[in-house]
Design brief:
The protein is of the alpha+beta class. It has helices at residues 17-36, 40-44, 54-72, 95-108, 111-125, 144-166, 174-191, 228-235, 241-246, and strands spanning 134-135, 142-143, 197-201, 205-209, 223-226, 250-253. The strands form two sheets. The chain has a four-stranded mixed beta sheet with strand order 4-3-5-6. Helix 3 packs parallel to helix 5 (111-125), helix 3 (54-72) runs antiparallel to helix 6 and helix 7 crosses helix 8.
């Protein structure tokens, strides 16, 4: 399998596997608690994601860890063929199948039952699984540790979707929010390589991107700064660049500080 995205020259950030596991489980727990308290009326509302209802969004959130349980139950591939920074650029190609799977799962059982099954499955499968185990995924074989990083991203992104669709606060695990912010920032640096623009997302990430004169000292001539949740919404297309600028959610200075041409990153 050829690489999904040419990120070979980009040094991949490392994530502590134990902290990643804890973050994934914590965020899944937050989602499970919120979903368990939703009424049928809330579950029937539009999710804001295409034609999905909140019920289907919730079913998709159960799938985020359900896929870990399913793939750990299969024989391990021989080697990893997909790196962590390939993943953000490969998800769009599988969106149709994901949507179909989500609809089927949402119709298969009550939402609470779906989460109970996944929670039981992950409690059984994950503790004994080696972080270096190669795991099949939709986009190709990955290290389990890397796949769990992607699960943290999915959980955070869709936790925000769930909160906006229902009006119910969904807490963010701090480590899960940090993982999501950092991976999407690093993906920006892969998509728009360069060092003319510094993107700051305090307190979690700073990356350089965009071709042009390289900054070496002092204050960079091109700076973008925003908060983690705004960044995640920009990177996933939930918020448009122009709207974020107009609403002062992003501070951008310099002629190369306009990211509209490279966003979104994750579809």
């Amino acid at each position: 399998m050829s690489p999904v995205n040419p990120a070979k020259k980009k040094r991949t950030r490392t994530y502590d596997p134990a902290r990643t596991r804890a973050a994934v489980l914590a965020q899944f727990g937050h989602v499970r608690e919120v979903v368990g308290g939703l009424s049928e009326d809330q579950l029937a509302r539009p999710s804001g994601l295409g034609e999905w209802s909140v019920r289907e969004l919730a079913a998709h959130l159960s799938m985020v860890l359900g896929s870990v349980v399913r793939f750990l139950g299969e024989p391990a591939p021989v080697k990893a063929e997909v790196g962590l920074l390939d993943w953000p650029f490969a998800t769009e190609a599988h969106a149709g199948q994901v949507a179909e799977d989500t609809r089927q799962i949402a119709a298969s059982a009550p939402i609470g039952e779906l989460f109970e099954r996944v929670a039981a499955g992950i409690a059984d499968a994950l503790p004994g699984a080696d972080d270096e185990r190669i795991t099949r995924t939709r986009i190709g074989p990955m290290r389990l540790a890397d796949f769990l990083v992607t699960r943290a991203v999915e959980l955070v992104v869709h936790s925000d979707d769930l909160a906006r669709a229902t009006g119910v606060d969904v807490p963010f695990d701090r480590q899960a929010l940090a993982i999501c912010t950092r991976l999407l920032a690093d993906a920006l640096a892969v998509k728009a390589p360069g060092a003319s623009t510094e993107v700051r997302i305090p307190p979690y990430a700073v990356v350089q991107c965009i071709e042009g004169p390289r900054h070496t000292r002092g204050t960079p001539p091109n700076v973008v700064e925003t908060d983690p949740l705004t960044w995640i919404r920009l990177a996933t297309g939930r918020t448009q660049w122009a709207d974020a600028i107009e609403e002062a959610q992003v501070r951008a200075s310099g002629e190369r500080a306009d990211l509209v041409g490279v966003l979104p990153i994750l579809g």
